[in-house]
Amino acid sequence: MDLLNFFKDILSEPAFLMGLIAMVGLIALRKPAHKVMTGTLGPILGYLMLAAGANVIVTNLEPLSQMIQHGFNITGVVPNNEAITSLAQEVLGVETMSILLVGLVFNLIIARFTRYKYIFLTGHHSFFMACLLSATLGAIGFKGVLLVLSGGFILGAWSAISPAIGQKYTLQATDGDEIAMGHFGSLGYYLSAFIGSLVGSDSKSTEDIEIPEKWSFLRNTTISTALTMIVFYLIACFKAGPEFVGSLSQGQNPYIFAIVSALSFAVGVAIVYSGVRMILADLIPAFEGIATKLIPNSVPAVDCAVFFPYAPTAVILGFAFSFLGGLIGMFILGAIGGVLIIPGLVPHFFCGATAGIYGNATGGRRGAMVGAFINGLFLAFLPAFLLPVLGQLGFSNTTFGDFDFGVIGILLGKIGNSLGHLGVFVIMAALLAALIIPSFMSQKDTAINNEQ
């Protein structure tokens, strides 16, 4: 059990996973020892920097969320992947860990022997999905080896298929860089890109917005992010009132606290950008070793934050319009008598920002705004529909927040409750067919959809 826990901790830590992948690639390329060492440490340090930046962002979004809930008198459920995963581990720890390990193995096998050559490197999202699968399949009646193998196959298959579905959009968003989306909000990003292609054919990119000379400082991403967030925080602070904000600020002046939190948020974004650059600088060259020697033409599927530097303006625009969509979705749910899903600022920032990037890639600023807005609506409705499935296990006060978790959880829950084990086996058969058929249709060695 200790050994299994050790491997679970390694595989659920994206920094180590990226480092191991880079090390294997560099060894396959027969690089000298000192280059293997530096090339392995680069992605590890880069991801830890990214995680540190993300932690700063999350830490400073928490008081903003509390101010909004108090100031606007909103009560309900806040979707949070980490919260529900920590709850589930008390009863599903072994199952989740086992599905995670088996899922990674299936992902590598699929990448080696099919045209889905995407290696999913975002370990914490794999861990969240393993938790969702153990909960939903367990509720349907799967147990023991059958639960682990079924959940592991679904995890491994979706880890390979989900990057492929929208890889043509990813190539547009990254200007052809050889990376893929390794994040289980992917369906929302691809939907945003599709919507962008419909509404923004003549819309300029968010990154081409013409700014007069006196406003040229806004081209500095860190400064423009800071100014935007100061407005958000001050409005929330004013609405919540100095007494409530004072309880959050530990005696600091409420408005100073709001401004410092906004500036700290901007610093977190800057740290994320620096970490991303460090990851890409070392991981992509090292990945050539895996792509040429071990798993030919493999493509690394990486965290959504890695895409932020490609369109920094779309990041802020996407966050704002995704949050707006979440608010409107919450009001709609309230009007129809559903559970109130309070917009979680963490999923709306990371997922909304990425939706903005994808919408911008196909439809410019109009695509970024509309695509992120639709993504925000789904981030309200999907957790609401997923909640009853998870509520059967006692997780009634929280739910998963990202797009793919909602789709897969609802699909498994509804079909499983209607058809039992047979329904799940039908889903698994469909995934298997999707993995195998492209190899018969075309004998190309390149990863499916990885061509512009």
Notable traits:
452 residues; mainly alpha; 15 helices
Estimated helix fraction: over 70%
Quote the distance from N terminus to C terminus: 46 Å
Give the overall shape: globular
Number of helices: 15
Structural class: mainly alpha
The main β sheet shows up as: 3 strands, parallel
H/E element order: HHHHEHHHEHHHHEHHHH
Strand order, sheet with most strands: 1-3-2
Q: DSSP strand (E) fraction? A: under 5%
Radius of gyration over all CA atoms, rounded? 22 Å
Q: Which segments are poorly predicted (pLDDT under 50) over 5 or more consecutive residues?
A: none
Arithmetic mean of pLDDT: 84
Q: Please give the number of β-strands.
A: 3
Sequence-ordered SSE layout with sheet pairings:
Layout: H1 2-11, H2 14-28, H3 33-71, H4 81-113, E1 118-120, H5 123-140, H6 144-165, H7 167-173, E2 180-181, H8 186-199, H9 221-240, H10 242-249, H11 254-294, E3 299-302, H12 312-335, H13 345-391, H14 403-419, H15 421-441
Parallel strand pairs: 1-3, 2-3
Helix pairs in contact: 1-4, 2-3, 2-11, 3-9, 3-11, 4-5, 4-6, 5-6, 5-14, 6-15, 7-13, 8-13, 9-11, 10-11, 12-13, 13-14, 14-15
Describe the structure concisely for a colleague.
The chain has helices at 2-11, 14-28, 33-71, 81-113, 123-140, 144-165, 167-173, 186-199, 221-240, 242-249, 254-294, 312-335, 345-391, 403-419, 421-441; strands at residues 118-120, 180-181, 299-302. The chain is an all-alpha fold. It has one domain.
